């Protein structure tokens, strides 16, 4: 998944929810294997502030790399961001985010979208060995269950300006509130020499 042809960047409006996602042209743009099953990369969604917390801490931004299997299964890789140096991935989206923000439709009542073109995904693929895994649900309607969540243990840096560009397209309080575990088990995988960004 070094570079992919992105289909569009869309701001969605639902009955009570708004969210933003970047989708990709059909075809093989990357896969991940979880539990022996192959999931194909479908889209990226963003939420500000983060929907996941670590030790009760919420972060300024969270990206969801959504993958789907041929039998309808879903697994999501979640990347958490804290303020720091700019993230190189978002430099290539700066003009398109501004274009989406300038769309003349009534954002919040109808969808808006812009074509993005070729997107280089290498910086989104930074390795981190540690991650949390649990069975949960989608965080946007219809909040479908049986989603395998993989929350990376390394918190990435992003500039406040980059977060502001993304957050300007999202409603205030875009993040779904933290949900009770309801008997779910959250597993933490931390192989030797892995990088984590929080207190154990």
Number of discrete helical segments = 3
Helix and strand element order: EEEEEEEEHHEEEEEHE
- Total separate domains: 1
The CATH class turns out to be Alpha Beta
Low-confidence stretches: 1-8, 11-17
Averaged pLDDT: 81
CATH homologous superfamily (4th level) name = Alpha carbonic anhydrase
* Helix percentage range: 10-25%
Overall shape: globular
Specify the biggest β-sheet: 12 strands, mixed
- Alpha-beta content class: mainly beta
Q: Give the number of DSSP strands.
A: 14
Radius of gyration: 16 Å
Strand content: 35-45%
Question: Which architecture name does CATH use?
Answer: Roll
Output the CATH topology.
Carbonic Anhydrase II
Quick summary of this structure?
The protein is mostly beta strands.
Q: Can you tag this structure with a few keywords?
A:
mainly beta; carbonate dehydratase activity; Alpha_CA_prokaryot-like; Carbonic Anhydrase II; 200 residues; two-stranded antiparallel sheet
How does this model look, in words?
The protein is mainly beta and 200 residues long. Helices cover 10% and strands 42% of the residues. The protein has 3 helices and 14 strands. A hairpin with a 7-residue loop joins strand 11 and strand 12. The protein is globular, with a radius of gyration of 16 Å. It catalyses: hydrogencarbonate + H(+) = CO2 + H2O.
Annotate the secondary structure layout.
Elements: E1 3-13, E2 18-24, E3 31-34, E4 37-47, E5 53-54, E6 57-58, E7 61-68, E8 74-83, H1 88-91, H2 94-101, E9 112-114, E10 117-120, E11 131-137, E12 145-152, E13 156-158, H3 160-167, E14 187-189
Parallel strand pairs: 8-12, 8-13
Antiparallel strand pairs: 1-2, 1-9, 1-10, 2-4, 3-4, 4-7, 5-6, 7-8, 11-12, 11-14
């Amino acid at each position: 998944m070094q570079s992919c042809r992105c289909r569009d960047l869309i701001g969605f409006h639902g009955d009570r929810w708004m969210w933003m996602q970047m989708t990709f042209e059909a075809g093989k743009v990357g896969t991940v294997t979880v539990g022996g099953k192959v999931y194909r990369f479908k889209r990226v969604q963003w939420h500000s502030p983060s929907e996941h917390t670590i030790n009760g801490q919420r972060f300024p931004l969270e990206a969801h790399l959504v993958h789907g299997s041929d039998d309808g299964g879903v697994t999501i890789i979640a990347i958490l961001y804290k303020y720091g140096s700019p993230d190189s991935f978002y430099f290539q989206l700066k003009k398109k985010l501004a274009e989406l923000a300038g769309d003349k439709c009534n954002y919040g009542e109808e969808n808006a979208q812009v074509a993005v073109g070729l997107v280089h995904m290498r910086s989104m693929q930074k390795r981190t060995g540690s991650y949390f895994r649990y069975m949960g649900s989608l965080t946007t309607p219809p909040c479908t269950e049986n989603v395998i969540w993989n929350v990376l243990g390394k918190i990435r840096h992003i500039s406040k300006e980059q977060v502001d560009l993304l957050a300007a397209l999202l409603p205030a309080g875009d993040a779904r509130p933290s949900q009770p575990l309801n008997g779910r088990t959250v597993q933490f995988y931390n192989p030797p020499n892995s990088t984590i960004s929080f207190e154990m």
